[in-house]
Each structure stands twice: as C-alpha cells, then as structure tokens.
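The following block was generated as part of the benchmark described in Methods. Ligand: pyridoxal-5'-phosphate.
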Amino acid sequence: MNDVSDRKNRPDLDAYWMPFTANRQFKADPRLLVAAKGMYYRTEDGREVIDGASGLWCVNAGHGREEIKAAILKQLDEMDYAPSFQMGHPKAFELAARHAALLPGDLNHAFYCNSGSEAVDSALKIALAYHRANGQGTRTRFIGRERGYHGVGFGGISVGGMVNNRKWFGAMLPGVDHLPHTHLASNAFSKGQPEHGAELADALEGIVGLHDASNIAAVIVEPCAGSTGYLPPPKGYLQRLRQICDKHGILLIFDEVITGFGRLGASFAAEKFGVIPDLMTVAKGISNATVPMGGVFVRKPVYEGLMQGPESALELFHGYTYSAHPLACAAASAVLDIYRDEQLFERSAELSPYWEQGIHSLKGLPNVVDIRNLGLAGGIDLAPSGPVGTRGFAAFTKAFELGLMIRQSGDAIAMSPPLVIEKAQIDEIIDITGRTIKAIA
Ligand SMILES: Cc1ncc(COP(=O)(O)O)c(C=O)c1O
C-alpha cells in the first residue's frame, strides 16, 4: 500500500457533488479513503479499515489485484479504445465466449455496457424489442418488485421499488406494476433462504389478470435483493415466478448485479437456485470494479429472435460508446482468471456457513430485530431510533470509526466482504459490528 497523505493534504471538498451522499454532513466530517489492498482500505489519516462491503458489493476478488492491473496496462499499451458500433476488437468476443461458458443453461450471448443501471435499461429495451420483432408488440408493460433496486436510470427506478429513489422523479416509465416484496416478519432470523413466502410470486397471476399477458413484456427481480438490506428469496419463490412467466410468455429478467460472480457461493444466482432467467443483468464483480463495466446476458432464443431482417440491417438500435471497452474487457478477463484459479465461487460457498454462524451470533444485541444471510453476505435490521435511517447511519459511521466499512439502507446494515476473506477477518468484521451495535444503542 502506498504511503498515505494526512489531513493537511486534504483537497477543497466543495465542488464535487457526491452521489447518494449527505454532502453537507460528509464535507463537515469527511471519510476519505486513499489506498486499498486485499481486504483493507487505508484512510487519509492512516487508519486501516476492513472492507465488509466489497466497496459497493463489487470488489469480489479483493483490492489491488496485480493480475488485473497488468492486464489493463498491457491493453492500454496495445490499444486504448476501439469504436463499439460496426467495429470490434478480439477481447470483446473472447470475453463473451468465456462468459457464455460460465453461464448456466442457454444464456449464451452477452451485450456489454458500463454499469448496472445501463445493464437494466438495456435489458428492458431488449425485452421490448424482442417481443416486437416476434409479432407481439403489445407486450410493453414491465413488472418489478417492491424494495427492488435496479440502478438509477429512468427504466431502473421505474421497475425499482425504493420510494426515495422514485418519489423525486416524476412519472417515470408508464405501464409498470410491482410485485410485493418478500421481507416477512414471520421469517425473522432465518438462516439462508427463508421458509415462508413462495406464494408471494402468485401476485404475478393477479397482475396478469388485470392487464392480460399479451400486454406484459417482462418481470424483473433481484434473485436476492441487495440494496434494501439483503433479502434472500423464500424457498420456492423464484421457481414459482419462472413457472408463471413461462405459462404466460413473459420474459424473466434476473438482476444479478450483486448476486453475480460468486456472491452466493455459485457463479450466479441462476446457477445456485437452478432457475434460468431469459435475461440477466450484471456489473460490479464482472471487472472487480477496476474499470466500469456492465452487461446483459441473454438466452439463445432471445438473441436469435432479434436476428431478423436483411443481414446488413442493425438488429438492435441500442449501444454505448464504451460498450465492451478494451480496458474493461481486459480487466474482466483477468478477473475471470482469478475467480477460476483461486476458486473464489467455491471459496464463497465454503465460507458461508462460518459467515452465517458469525452474523447470527449478533442476535440478542440491543435493537437487533432481524438478521439474514445467504452466501457471503448478510443484512441486519436495527430498530429505528427516530426518522428512518438515523440508527442505520449511526451504525455506518460508528463502524467506520472502529475500522469497518459496511453498507447502510434505512435502519438496516448490509455486509458483503470480498470472497478472498479469511476466517480471522470474518471474526474481525463480526467483532466490530457487535461493538458498533452496542456503542450506538
Ligand atoms: C441489483 C442492482 N442493480 C443495478 C444496480 C446499479 O448498478 P450501478 O450503480 O453500476 O449503475 C445495482 C447497484 O447497486 C444493484 O445492486
């Protein structure tokens, strides 16, 4: 890790408008990170902070990976950029073939973009275009889920189900309904997938009854909801959703921006649960967050359904200047090598019982009203102490002060450490979390 600057070197903080941040609070009491290696960040005042959140659920292979750095530098030497429309470069095709080989079922085509939000908007557009190309252009409605997070594009906030991400931004996409969320009080303190709630998927039948399937393009859900405090799917829920979508010719989209690339102890949630969506959105762990990248993986019939018309015609009027950026492709390929060589998906599965035991050991601490886990991640609900988010924010800042980075959503905290974590580091995370919860009681 590089030597770090101290507070004397702090830049003027005024001009940068920080995303999803209480800007005024932050600028009055900043939390500045200046270096990262393995499981740890270093703060501007030289403190080590263990990364209990993989950055933002994205640094699955740990920080400062030399192999990824070498691949990016090599690519930069060879070719910095290639146009993505009507031109290609070999690394994009190689990467897509590698992703296809890793993906379950016939999810074997990849469309690349630069973030999870772009991936979601791309997936929604592909779903619409697919139906139109196949003579079902009336299928334009989307169904999301309460408490879902699908990024911040207009498509993503429309199908998403987090009120603060929606209420400021007008009418959004027309024609969107939401399934009920799956966070049931009867499942409190479940270990792994909760028992109750598979029947919540049946709400889809109700929505079909209201609009008719001929008007519905796709259902989008996170197989395990991340951003609202980590909500593993009830047993049988995703299977039921798949069956109902099949029955009505509705495309099923899994947003695997968080669950993809090993988080659940399998390559993807689709593999873990044995449920193959028609489209899958990814980002984050795809490049270990070194170079921004996202993607939509689609099943063969979806891709082939759009390969129509004259051969010289564009099949999909959609794409980004930086789709399959050479640096992102080089990084993503190096990350796949690490996942394979270090068997990080298997490691995530092996460590998850230890993680489960650790996180559930916090039951009984003051204000802990629920604990959930699946794979190498988990969520803890804290009883509110005032306006929503007051206690959650107190937990976030206290944990940081004690040397741990976690995520906060309202009064829930979520943790998702890099998959390279050691058992002693799991102990460290659980210990600091416990001390944090007691300190803010
Ligand atoms: C499930 C899910 N979808 C989409 C996104 C949006 O990704 P990005 O922030 O890269 O746009 C996120 C980000 O956390 C996510 O968790």
